[in-house]
Design brief:
Layout: H1 2-6, H2 9-38, E1 47-53, E2 56-70, H3 72-77, E3 90-96, E4 107-111, E5 115-119, E6 125-129, E7 135-144, E8 147-149, H4 155-199, H5 206-233, E9 237-241, E10 247-251, E11 255-259, H6 266-282, E12 285-286, E13 291-292, H7 295-326, H8 331-343, H9 348-371, H10 386-410, H11 414-422, H12 427-454, H13 461-464, H14 491-500, H15 505-547
Helix pairs in contact: 2-15, 4-5, 7-10, 7-12, 9-10, 10-12, 11-12, 12-15, 14-15
C-alpha cells in the first residue's frame, strides 16, 4: 500500500478527481442561478382558480409561483381539516395574484384540496405597470379623453396605445434628464459665481444676472411643457375586469406593456422572453429595485472596475519595479514585502473604513475647501462617490498586482538586463523597452485577479459611494462628462438590497438570481477581455524570450 502511495499515479487521479468535483460544483451553481434567473422572464400561464374558502367560493387570477408537498400529518397538526379525497400527502400552491393596490397580498397559499377548478383562460392579460406591480385581468374597454371605447378594442389596439404612451414617456424623460438637467447645472454654476461675489461684498455683474434670469425663464417653460405632456398622458385609461368582475380603470401612463400568456404560441413566448431580458438589462429599476431593470448597476460596476484598473496598475507596477529592480535586499525591503502580503488578507470592510476616513473626509474635504468653497456646507468631493470607491478598491487590490508583477520580473533572466546595458542602454531604457514588455503577461495576470476581486466586493463600497438608487449616471453629455463626485449603483449591492432589503421578498427573489447571473457574466466578460490581452502579449514576446 505504501509503495502504491509513493507512486505518482494515485495522487494524479486524486487531484484530477478533486478538480472535476470543483468544476461540477461550479457548473451546478451556475446552472441553478441561470435557470432560476432566466425562467423568471418566461411568460408563465395565468389561471382562473375557483377556490373553496371559509367565506365560500372565490375566484382568483394568478400565476403558479411555487409548489411544495405537505404531508397529511403536518396539515392535521396545523388544524387543517382534510377532505376525503386528500387524506395523504398533497400539494400546496403559491399563487401570485398581483393587483397589489386592490388585494391584501401579492401572493396567496392554497392547498390542492381547496382548488375546485383551474382554467387557463386565453382572454386573461398581464399588464405590467410602473407602480404596484403586475395587474391580472380581462381587458374590456378603453377610456379616451373621458369617453369609453368598447368596439374594436383588440390586443393590437392596446399595444398601439401603449406604444404611443411609451413615446410620450420617452419625450418626458428626455426633457427631464436632458434639457432640464442641463439648465439646472448651468444655474448652479451661475449661482455659485454670484455667491462668490456676494461673499466678497461685491456687486454681481449684470451679465450673470441676465443669464440667470434667462435660464430661469427657460426652466419655467420646460416645466410648463412637462405639465402639459403629463396631463395629456393621464387622460386615457385601460378598462380591465378583475377577478371579482369589477371594471377597473388603469391609467395609460402607468402601463408599460400588456400580453396574453395563455394565447401566445411558443414562438411568441420566446420573442417575449428575449424582449424581457433586453429590458431587464437596459432599463432602470422600479418599485424599490424589486422590478424593472439593472442598467445603472451594470454601468456603475463596469465603470468602477475600469477606473480601478487604471489606478491600480501603474501603482502596483511601480511598487513592484522599485522592490525588485532598485531596492536593496535588506531588512527594510523584507518588511515591506511582508506588509504587502499581509495587506492581501485584510478584511475588505477595513479598507472601506480607511477610504471613508482618508479619501472622503480628509482628501475630499480639503479639495472642497480649496476649490469648491462657494458650495459649502454642501460637499462636492467631501462625500462618498465614484472616485473614492475606485481608489478604495485600488488600494484593496494593490497587493495582488504587486506580487504578480514582481514574480513576472523575477522570471526574466538577469542576462537580458546585462546584455541590454552592455549595448549602451541605461537601466531605465532597459526597464522600459525590455523588462516591462516581457513582464506584461504577469502584469495582466495581476490585473485579472484584481478585477475578479474588485467587481464582486460590496462591503467597502457601502461606505464610499454605492447607493440603492442613483439619481443619474456618472457619465453623461454635460461637461466634464465623467462626474467622479457622483454616487453610483453596483450589481453586488443590488443583489444584497433586492435579496434582504426588499419590501416584497417573494416577488423580488427571482431578480436576485437574475442579477447574480448578470454579475457573474460581467466579471467573466471583464476577465476574458484581460485574458485575451495577456495571451496576445505573451505570444508577442515569446519569440523574443526564445531568442534570448
Amino acid at each position: 500500500m505504501f509503495k502504491r502511495l509513493n507512486r505518482s499515479s494515485p495522487w494524479v487521479w486524486m487531484t484530477a478527481g478533486m478538480v472535476s468535483l470543483c468544476l461540477v460544483a461550479v457548473l451546478g451553481v451556475m446552472l441553478l442561478i441561470g435557470w432560476k434567473g432566466l425562467t423568471f422572464f418566461w411568460p408563465a400561464p395565468v389561471y382562473e382558480f375557483q377556490v373553496d374558502t371559509q367565506r365560500g367560493t372565490e375566484t382568483l387570477f394568478g400565476e403558479i409561483y411555487g409548489v411544495e408537498s405537505v404531508s397529511a400529518n403536518q396539515l392535521k397538526e396545523a388544524g387543517v381539516k382534510l377532505k376525503p379525497n386528500f387524506d395523504s400527502e398533497q400539494n400546496r400552491f403559491l399563487i401570485k395574484i398581483g393587483n397589489r393596490e386592490r388585494e391584501d397580498h401579492d401572493f396567496v397559499s392554497v392547498l390542492e384540496q381547496n382548488i375546485l377548478s383551474q382554467t387557463p383562460r386565453p382572454d386573461i392579460a398581464v399588464i405590467e405597470r410602473t407602480e404596484h406591480g403586475a395587474f391580472f385581468g380581462v381587458p374590456t374597454g378603453y377610456m379616451q379623453r373621458g369617453k369609453v371605447v368598447e368596439s374594436g378594442v383588440t390586443p393590437r389596439f392596446f399595444e398601439d396605445k401603449i406604444e404611443i404612451a411609451d413615446q410620450q414617456r420617452e419625450a418626458i424623460h428626455h426633457i427631464e434628464q436632458g434639457e432640464i438637467e442641463k439648465v439646472n447645472r448651468q444655474l448652479n454654476v451661475l449661482n455659485s459665481e454670484a455667491g462668490t461675489y456676494k461673499k466678497a461684498d461685491q456687486a454681481v455683474p449684470q451679465i450673470i444676472l441676465d443669464e440667470i434670469e434667462t435660464l430661469t425663464e427657460r426652466y419655467q417653460t420646460l416645466a410648463s411643457s412637462l405639465n402639459v405632456m403629463r396631463s395629456a398622458l393621464s387622460l386615457d385609461y385601460l378598462i380591465i375586469k378583475d377577478r371579482s368582475g369589477l371594471s377597473v380603470k388603469v391609467p395609460l401612463n402607468d402601463v408599460l406593456s400588456i400580453w396574453y400568456p395563455n394565447a401566445m404560441s411558443w414562438h411568441e413566448k420566446l420573442i417575449h422572453w428575449a424582449h424581457q431580458i433586453v429590458r431587464f438589462v437596459t432599463e432602470d429599476p422600479r418599485e424599490a429595485n424589486s422590478e424593472g431593470g439593472v442598467f445603472p448597476a451594470i454601468f456603475g460596476t463596469v465603470l468602477m472596475v475600469l477606473l480601478m484598473s487604471v489606478m491600480v496598475t501603474p501603482l502596483g507596477v511601480m511598487a513592484a519595479v522599485y522592490l525588485h529592480e532598485y531596492a536593496g535586499k535588506n531588512a527594510f525591503t523584507r518588511i515591506i514585502r511582508i506588509a504587502v502580503v499581509n495587506l492581501a488578507g485584510v478584511p475588505s470592510i477595513v479598507y472601506g473604513v480607511f477610504g471613508l476616513g482618508f479619501f472622503v473626509y480628509f482628501v475630499g474635504g480639503n479639495i472642497d475647501d480649496l476649490f469648491y468653497s462657494e458650495t459649502l456646507p454642501n460637499p462636492t468631493f467631501g462625500t462618498p462617490g465614484l472616485l473614492w470607491s475606485s481608489l478604495t478598491l485600488a488600494i484593496l487590490t494593490l497587493p495582488v498586482v504587486i506580487v504578480s508583477t514582481e514574480e513576472g520580473l523575477t522570471r526574466i533572466p538577469v542576462s537580458v538586463r546585462h546584455g541590454s546595458m552592455a549595448l549602451g542602454a541605461t537601466q531605465a531604457e532597459t526597464l522600459w523597452r525590455i523588462v516591462l514588455p516581457m513582464a506584461s503577461p504577469a502584469i495582466m495576470t495581476g490585473l485579472i485577479l484584481a478585477i475578479a476581486r474588485a467587481a464582486g466586493e460590496v462591503a467597502p463600497l457601502m461606505l464610499v459611494g454605492v447607493v440603492k438608487v442613483a439619481p443619474s449616471l456618472p457619465l453623461d453629455g454635460n461637461f466634464p462628462f465623467l462626474h467622479l463626485d457622483r454616487k453610483f449603483m453596483h450589481l453586488g449591492y443590488h443583489v444584497y438590497d433586492v435579496g434582504f432589503q426588499s419590501p416584497n421578498i417573494e416577488a423580488a427573489r427571482p431578480l436576485v438570481y437574475a442579477t447574480s447571473l448578470l454579475l457573474v457574466t460581467v466579471i467573466v466578460s471583464l476577465n476574458l477581455a484581460a485574458i485575451t490581452i495577456r495571451n496576445h502579449l505573451r505570444e508577442k514576446y515569446r519569440a523574443l524570450e526564445q531568442e534570448l
